[in-house]
Amino acid sequence: MNFFKKIINVRKLFLEVVIISVVVGFVAGVTGELFTRAYIFPPAEIESEQILIDELSKEKKEEEGKRKKEAKNVVEETKASLAGIYAKKFSTSQDVLRQIYLPSELKGQGFVLTSDGWILTDEKILIGFSKENLVVSVEGKIFEVEKIVNDKVSGLSFLKVSAEKLAVVKLGDLENLKSSDVVLIMGSDGKVFSTTLQDLSYQPVSQAENLVKSSEEFSDLILLADELDKSYLGSPVVSLSGEVIAVVTKSASQEVNLAIPIDYIKPLVFDILRDIEISRPFLGVKYLDLTEGLGISSEFRQNLDKGALVYRNPLVNTPAAIVGLTVRDIILKVDDEEVGVKNSLTKLIQEYESGDKVELVVSREQKEIKVEVELGELK
User: Fold this and answer.
1) Is the pLDDT reported for residue 12 higher than 60?
2) pTM for the model
3) Is the dihedral angle over the CA atoms 311, 317, 320, 322 positive or is it negative?
4) How far is Cα of residue 364 from the mean position of the Cα atoms in its chain?
5) Residue 45 in domain
6) What is the rounded CA–CA span in Å between residue 188 and residue 82?
7) How many domains is the chain built from?
8) Nearest Cα to Cα of residue 133 among 107, 171, 103, 167
9) DSSP strand pairing (330-334 vs 308-310)
10) How far apart, in whole angstroms, are the C-alpha atoms of residue 167 and residue 150?
11) Domain final residue, candidates 234, 267, 300
12) Sign of CA dihedral 33, 36, 41, 45
């Protein structure tokens, strides 16, 4: 009997252990599920996050599609205004093949400013060439160059060809653009490169002397996010609104990743349209922009944060010297327009014409004075 009682007790104990194990396992499973749902993978949050990701992905695709469509439209609208610049061929050979201008022989690009044949390009393309040694192609036609006008202030050149009813580009500005905006670089050979604006006011600086500016030379350029092939030199930089905002140029180290703002030549366009010689105003000041000169002492700054610090005494008989501007003077305003980040002294002066009289507000030894200067003509 004792033997059978022991067997029954063992079975009973075993059954209890099994029941307890099942109950504990069930409770643990339910608790784990609730914990997982509540704290690790909340279903509602997962669902909302997934919806958000899907919406962002959809918006991104729609934005990319819109951008591609805009770019395609811009290319179609602009391509008829693009110009290729070649060294003229003087071959007397009867072989027709020697008369053909190949894409590999392209010296640079340009674009049409006026319907009667004014072309704008980067002056670096024309170094070593005269008008007699160049031809321009527009819409598959070759034109001889009648005239070259170089603008020393901007670094751009105007070429005149004999033509009528050419398609012209639309000129824009940097006013509504910002870094990271997408732009198109277009060539007359059909190539199009998409890049972004990296810096809208870039000045290559390898040494402190590079910071010294001239009232007769623009130094701020646009830095592009990508380096371009040299065949794009002189090409228009076109915004997605279809406006030319700059002209591709190269750095001193020959990298083709810079652009000259089109704003720099806008004051000259009226003269070009009237087919008269362009004229640039002349002040004759070498200066440092206080917004860029990190570390300039308060002694030189006169406790000012912005303005054009005259770096050296102006040369004799220059307009600046005639009115008595001197080293350490700080030019604060030009006719009530402040000299600052958006308005460099160069930009403000170059908006006038030679012979114009302007009033300069100058800080000299921490005292403001006003001087009236008559701008000369840049030779």
Assistant:
1) no
2) 0.79
3) positive
4) 36
5) no
6) 5
7) 3
8) 107
9) antiparallel
10) 23
11) 267
12) positive
Rounded to the nearest angstrom, the gap between the alpha carbon of residue 239 and the centroid of all alpha carbons in its chain is 10
Residues belonging to the chain: 379
- DSSP calls for 93-147: -S-GGGGPPPGGGEEEEEEESSTTSEEEEEGGGGTT--GGGEEEEETTEEEEEEE
Give me the half-sphere count of Cα atoms (radius 13 Å) on the Cβ side of residue 126: 24
Please tell me the predicted confidence (pLDDT) of residue 56.
59
Clarify whether residues 183 and 261 are in a common domain: yes
Calculate the CA dihedral of residues 285, 286, 289, 293 and round it to 10 degrees: -160
Token pair of 286 as six digits:
């070498």
Q: 């031809």: which residue's tokens?
A: 135
Q: Would you give the DSSP letter of residue 37?
A: I
Between 91 and 78, the more confident residue is: 78
| Burial class of residue 321 (count of CB atoms within 10 Å of its CB; 0-12, 13-18, 19+) | middle
> Is the residue at 144 inside a domain?
yes
Tell whether 174 and 157 lie within a shared domain: no
Residue-wise pLDDT tens digits, 303-353? 999 999 999 999 999 999 999 999 999 999 999 999 988 889 999 999 999
Query: In 123-280, at which residue ranges do the beta strands (DSSP E only) sit?
Result: 134-138, 141-151, 156-161, 170-171, 182-186, 192-202, 213-214, 221-224, 236-239, 243-249, 258-261
Which pLDDT does position 354 carry in this prediction?
93
Domain harbouring 101, CATH code: 2.40.10.10
